[in-house]
Amino acid sequence: MSILILYTGGTIGMTVSESGLAPSSSLVEKLHTIFPSGIANTPEYSVQTLDPLIDSANLDTTHWQRIVAAIQQHWDAYNSFIILHGTDTMAYTASLLSYVFANSCKNIILTGSQLPLGAERSDAPCNLALALSLANGIPLGQVAIAFGNQVLQGNRATKISSQAFAGFDSPNTPPLVTNQITPHYRVNGLTGCQPCKEPAELHFQPEAVALLWLTPSLSQASYGGFLHDSKCKALVLVSFGAGNIASENQSFCQFLADAKDKGLVVVNVSQCQHGGTSTGAYAAGSVLTQLGVLDGKDMTVEAAFTKLHYLLALDHSPKEIRTHWQTCRAEEWSE
Ligand code: ASN
């Protein structure tokens, strides 16, 4: 088994600077000291740093391009990939990679930490040990996040705490693995596991996907601009409860009708972490079907946002995106 660790930044490798924690290349040396490659219980691994290292709050599509390219470049040489990533946007990258590398037999595992490697009480050693043991183990059949003694399906995970060591949850699906004295494995995805094949070439469009979180008394200023932004091709609508909107707000309904006419793809997900949309349950939600809004079911915001980016990066037209949206590519929603 051979493992490539791609280091992209995040708290796991940060050191204290004058303005607070900031990315540092010193992680690689610390990693080799604490986890000597191929010695004792540590499997053999290589490390590649993806410069520039970032706080993942600075993540954009150029970083996705770099991570995807690095995995593609080393695809044949390694059995597993561990991505060291900041926690703030880890679920976005995990979701994106789940579409790009869907159904692969190789393990792609993202991890990071809430405290830097080497800091007192750091969660980094535990998260790294978990990621390394998984990378060396059975194919998970999913891009995964290993964090806080859990292994979560990447495109169903979301960051739930800026404090707790259990920083992630996957509210609509159980963990792939629960790390305990006898680890508990959820039988998953492996049936869909296929021989690896070359993923398609991606042309990311940096500002093509926007997000609108609904509130009572929504101001027109919060959505009107999307129609006049030539870069904006798709919108994630984060609606109330079971997927409802203010159906009596004529201006907002007109906006959705205009968006449809203009070819702006709109996807609806729920503000509730659990349960997702139940399209048709309420009149205040079924109006969305009439307005051509696509159903995001029980997807996370991260999974919906990155699926749109992925489909756009394949150069699909709005019509093609609407068709491809319906296919569950990487178990991103519950069937
Ligand atoms: N701001 C950090 C990041 O996302 C948070 C972390 O990694 N824990 O890069």
TrEMBL record:
Domain Asparaginase/glutaminase C-terminal stretches: 209-323
Which GO biological-process labels does this protein carry?
Answer: amino acid metabolic process
Active site (UniProt): T11
Question: Which residues are involved in binding substrate?
Answer: S56, T87, D88
Q: Give every L-asparaginase N-terminal domain span.
A: 3-179
Matches recorded under Gene3D superfamilies: 3.40.50.40, L-asparaginase, N-terminal domain
A GO MF label: asparaginase activity
Q: InterPro entries under this entry? A: Asp/glu_Ase-like_sf, Asparaginase/glutaminase-like, Asparaginase/glutaminase_AS1, Asparaginase_C, L-asparaginase_C, L-asparaginase_I, L-asparaginase_N, L-asparaginase_N_sf
This protein's source sits in the domain of life called Bacteria
- Family (UniProt): Belongs to the asparaginase 1 family.
Its protein name is Asparaginase
Q: What organism, scientifically named, is this protein from?
A: Maribrevibacterium harenarium
